[in-house]
Amino acid sequence: VLCITADLARVCPRGQVFSDCVSSCPPTCASPQPPGSCLPGPCNPGCTCPSGQVGKSQCVCMCVCVFVVG
């Protein structure tokens, strides 16, 4: 029987951090705010970008994003 401890479950890819509540619609450069189609729901523990960074598989500083103001 293989047991996975809570510590192993909290290992994240390089550049990401573990959070007890990860959004199902993480902010990206293309979509810094959750789209209207992203309904709030129960959050799940997992890996996410640190504060001030955005991305899905790779986190980047929001400062490198180009935003178009309407």
Summarize the structure.
Helices cover 6% and strands 21% of the residues.
Keywords:
single chain; 70 residues; mainly beta; Laminin; two-stranded antiparallel sheet
Q: How would you explain this protein's 3D organization?
A:
There is one protein chain. The chain has 70 residues and is mostly beta strands. The protein is flat and about 35 Å long. The protein has 1 helix and 4 strands. InterPro entries: Ser_inhib-like_sf, TIL_dom. Residues 12-65 form the TIL domain. This is TIL domain-containing protein. It comes from Anabas testudineus (Climbing perch).
Mean pLDDT: 79
CATH class bucket of the domain at 13-32 and 40-62: Mainly Beta
Q: What's the total number of strands?
A: 4
The residue ranges in which pLDDT falls below 50 over 5 or more consecutive positions are none
Q: What is CATH's topology name of the domain at 13-32 and 40-62?
A: Laminin
Helix-strand topology string: HEEEE
Q: Report the major sheet.
A: 2 strands, antiparallel
| Major beta sheet, strand line-up | 1-2
User: What gross morphology would you assign?
Assistant: flat
Overall helicity: under 10%
Compute the number of helices.
1
Instruction: Indicate the radius of gyration in whole angstroms.
Output: 14 Å
